Amino acid sequence: MLLLVNGCFFVSFFYLGIASLDPNSMDSTRRISVSVFVFALFSFLPFNAVARGGDRISFHSGAMNHSKGFLSRHLFQAKQPPLRQEITRGYMSNFELDKSIKEFGKRCANISYLYSIGESVQGFPLWVIEISDKPGQKEPEPSFKYIGNVHGDEPVGRELLMRLANWLCDNYMKDPLANLIVEKVHLHLLPSMNPDGFALRRRGNANNVDLNRDFPDQFFPINDVESMRQPETIAIMNWLKKEHFTASASLHGGALVANYPWDGSQDKRNKYYACPDDAAFQFMATLYSRSHHNMSLSKEFPEGITNGAFWYPIYGGMQDWNYIHGGCFEITLEISDIKWPKAKELDVLWEHNRMSMLNLIASLVKGGVHGRVFSGETGFPLPASVNLEGINYTVRASSIYGDYHRILAPRGSYKVIASMPGYKTKSTQVQIGDEGVNLDFILNPEESINKEARPKKGCECNCNCNCEGIGNTKLLQFFKRIHMELYIFAFLILLFLCFLFKRKSILKFSRHNRQYIGGKRSTVV
Question: Mean per-residue pLDDT for 370-377?
Fold first, then answer.
């Protein structure tokens, strides 16, 4: 490439020299020299950047005109020569993928559940495979999702996700890592987000829109008009409203690197732009890279990881939207240097990425902080907010079980804070080593202090249960007639029953927490 560039510069200056000697040939030779010079100049541009984002300068060229559409979202066919059909040979067609997914659902029905999150522009269902020991059910466990084939001309991800599903099915009850994932995580696999683009053998969907530019952006008002979003994008956004995902990764091609937020910067410059959980994201990206066959050996990307904005900024991406609006820690994985490698290379690519894909999922339960939040008054779960001191990001506990799962970089000390409107905030300090920590919170209502300070007349029970019946005049007259020792004994029994009633649900859920990390007992605050 360097010789080619030098040669182009030499030819351009050669023609300029001729033009200076012969005025009659000046116009034509100038045109030739300028053309060759421009070719040489563009030879320096990092075209491999289209792996994650496509046209890296499209946003800067005025992409915010609603009447003309967003240039950053649309692609130009002139820049995308169609792939030869022979290169697609050996990959599953959309119909073959559909068949493969359904056959997997029948073969591995004990640990899988199939569902569709919507349809593509051309009506192809966006199938998801859920893998768990209790598929289709809600549990107080972390959920992880893999999304493949975001860009139609990057099909390796859809093939690898089917291999991942089959590996887990074949190795469940045989391999400890497979057991951990199936029993402790709810794994969701979307093999193809862009089946239309795959069928057309191009990057964009059937409307020629880059789906990794179609999400609302945190810095600029692109894609804020809901009616302009693509059905595939809307399907992903609605999916995250229904499912409480802890972490995620999308699979791309054209480079070999693990990319993490932020993907863009407010001033649109190429620079490192860290999100609040930068340390946690670096941990996730590094875990994938080091588990990979050779990703961490990259000469272009130190340790095989990169901050998205530092690599090159993109806007309207799915990764940042997941973190901001979905409460989901998503990274972008470039898993093959070639976008559409020959099918005979898929087995090798699977072996190179297999442990990385498995370890990233397992990290959800091996590390971080996990637990539940309960009401100290009723014992019921609370959809509380969980924050860390010094990190401007909130993880919300689920409304069903009150469970939360917080990804953290290992070997650090963190102050964990649980809060809920109407309840007293609680916090505690935890030390994260190489293993995770189980931490439950019991929040007391703010008004409970006043209740304890001023108990109701005739109610000596200080246990937040309904004791109004004790104030009944006839009942009090009865107690006055019995011996003082019997009265005290009855009071203690009543107090004990109230205590059991309050703690029944908490103890029930806390026992399940031991399943998360090596059967460790949960710490209750």
Answer: 97
